[in-house]
Amino acid sequence: MNLNIVLFQPEIPQNTGNIARTCVLTNCKLHLIKPLGFSLDEKHLKRAGLDYWKYLDLKVYESYEELREKYKDSNFYFSTTHGDNFYHEVEYKEGDFIVFGRESCGLPDYIRESDPKKCIRVPMINTTTRSLNLSNTVAIVAYEALRQMDFPTMK
C-alpha cells in the first residue's frame, strides 16, 4: 500500500466512486469516516467505481477519533483551502495519511487545528468559488505524493 486516502464524511457518491478507482489504480487504501452522505450500496457510487470495487482496500470508521486511535503513530496531512503549505511543498512517505473534507464545507476546525503545520492546499487562482472538485483534488495530491516516492509498486 502506497498511501492512505481518508474521506471525512463524504457527501457525493460519484466523487467517492471516482476516488475509489484512483485508489485501486495507485495501490492506495481508502478510509471513509461516517456519517456518509450515501449508502455504500448506492448505484451512483457503484457506477462511478465501475468494476473496481472488488479490488479496493476499503475501511469504514464510525468517527475520525476511531481512525486516529488506530493509527496514532502515523503521519497525517490535511487537505484544506486553509492550509499554509502547498501540497507539493511537503515530503510524503509511504503509508502517510492524507485527509480530505466534505464536499460542502471541507474539514472541521478541530481537525485542521490539531496540527496546522500539516495542512496542505492546492493553489487556486480564483478564490471567489469554494474549491476544486474533491475527486480531482485527491488525484492531484495523491499523484504528487507518489511522484515524490518515485511511484512505488507502480513500475
TrEMBL record:
List keywords of the entry alphabetically: Cytoplasm, Methyltransferase, S-adenosyl-L-methionine, Transferase, tRNA processing
Cellular location(s): Cytoplasm
Q: Which InterPro entries match?
A: Alpha/beta_knot_MTases, SpoU_MeTrfase, TrmL, tRNA_m1G_MTases_N
Q: What is its EC number?
A: 2.1.1.207
* Binding positions (S-adenosyl-L-methionine): G101, V122, S131
What family does this chain come from, according to its entry? Belongs to the class IV-like SAM-binding methyltransferase superfamily. RNA methyltransferase TrmH family. TrmL subfamily.
* GO CC terms in record: cytoplasm
Species, as recorded: Clostridium scatologenes
A GO biological process of this protein is:
wobble position ribose methylation
Protein name as catalogued: Putative tRNA (cytidine(34)-2'-O)-methyltransferase
